[in-house]
Design a protein that fits this description.
This protein is mostly helical and 306 residues long. The protein has 15 helices and 4 strands. Helix 6 crosses helix 8.
């Protein structure tokens, strides 16, 4: 299986400590590890870490019978109850309080967002009001993850999600139209967050790995990479270009539309198709998601992007 461990390194010039890799499900362990590293390096005083004793939001009072209670108290389906308990913990009760009658004999409450999946329409309102959801694209991808499971279902339900979010957040007609257009554009490349035709060509790498690598090159975090960022990051990773001409040539290979800015999808396309490019080969050797690390990596318990 592909590793998703994290590594910690310190820049010897700036003395800034970085953590790279990891995954959402271990973010608190990552935080503990990097703080322990900084505390030891700086000789700071601190008590023992308490993060593993603090429950997540919705975790206080949670027990294995929560799904059963949701079915009994709110008349939602068993599948929906399991989904809500898993996604919201004890806050699932607050979600269910927003559920509207289904108009069916069973389940009695909870209008399903899209047939065949457990998500309820009232989740949209709850997340907008309580979890800072602000875009249709975010709702269907990182929050509900429907786009990762079934792109067609996500595309089909996007207009309904836009309507529900517009009603909750008070969007104008123009904003709702913009949100929907943006979401449809983003969802169009799913099958993974890359064009479907490209997906079969990725083997050792994963979309998450490549997005993490692209984020390192995108130094200013604006979602694109210019040639200056490419040169700076190549040098920081230990692979400086031999000349400005070499850097320009590599940049042109990535910048397929000639805009002077490289997007995430262009970077992924370059990774897939330009395997003979010198920088691509060097990065492939270092970050083929084995045991290679960035920086000194001495405090790491795993690999960088694997």
């Amino acid at each position: 299986p592909v590793s998703r461990d994290h590594i910690i390194s310190t820049n010897p010039d700036t003395d800034i400590t970085f953590i790279t890799g990891g995954k959402w499900t271990t973010y608190r362990e990552m935080a503990e590890d990097v703080l322990n590293k900084v505390i030891a390096r700086k000789g700071l005083k601190a008590g023992p870490c308490l993060t593993d004793k603090r429950p997540l939001r919705g975790g206080v009072g949670y027990h294995k019978n929560v799904p059963i209670q949701l079915v009994q108290e709110f008349g939602v389906s068993e599948e929906t109850a399991k989904h809500l308990a898993s996604a919201y913990g004890m806050n699932a009760f607050d979600v269910c309080k927003m559920a509207k009658p289904s108009g069916k004999a069973w389940p009695k409450f909870g209008a399903v967002l899209v047939e065949g999946y457990p998500h309820l329409e009232c989740e949209i309102e709850y997340q907008c009001k309580n979890e800072m959801a602000t875009t249709v694209y975010d709702m269907l991808t990182t929050r509900m993850r429907l786009a990762f499971v079934n792109r067609e279902a996500a595309l089909a339900v996007a207009p309904k999600v836009a309507d529900l979010m517009a009603e909750t957040l008070g969007w104008s007609r123009k904003e709702k139209k913009r949100q929907l257009a943006s979401a449809l554009e983003g969802l169009a490349v799913f099958g993974g967050p890359i064009p479907v035709k490209m997906g079969s060509e990725l083997s050792a790498t994963t979309v998450t790995d490549l997005r993490s690598l692209f984020a390192k090159f995108d130094i200013d975090g604006n979602g694109t990479m210019d040639i200056k960022e490419l040169v700076q990051m190549a040098e920081a990773l230990g692979y400086p270009f031999k000349s400005s001409d070499e850097a320009s040539a590599t940049f042109r290979h990535m910048d397929k539309d000639g805009t002077g800015r490289i997007t995430e999808n262009e970077f992924i396309a370059w990774w897939v198709h330009e395997k003979d490019d010198e920088l691509r080969k060097k990065l492939g050797e270092q970050f083929q998601f084995s045991g290679d690390k960035l920086g000194d990596g001495s405090g790491s318990r795993g690999v960088m992007f694997g």
